[in-house]
Specification:
alpha+beta, 4 helices, single chain, 8 strands, Aminopeptidase
Length: 147
Amino acid sequence: MPESSPFSVKVVNWCDAVVALRAVRSAVFIHEQCIPEDQEWDEADPSCLHVLACAAAGEEIGTGRLLPDGHIGRMAVLKSWRGQGVGAAVMQALLAAAKGRGHAVVELSAQTHAIDFYRRFGFEVTSEEYLEVDIPHRAMRRELKLR
């Protein structure tokens, strides 16, 4: 990412960045999308690789996680930062991490409005529509070339 970029993306540890990660996910999932708080937080977070995007001024603006089994999830970008490449940068970091960990395949559960975003990264729809926390989703998958 060029030094003049308005944001940066880095891999973070859940324990070290829990406050920042929770702030972004709370804003997007709990407040904006009205997902019940008890359905947002799970026991998987401490074992996941997390990516955090921060504005040049230091504000946390986006996040995503990679589960040990190769699933990508909890992709969230603050509303005021959408359309500025933050989600793409988070996804690129998660795909690089998955490849670095030797995952031949990555999967995710996409909110249907975001399917085209994930398609731009090579994901293909693998399921019919289903509801997850009362939001329409479809499963998606992408194979990674490890060499």
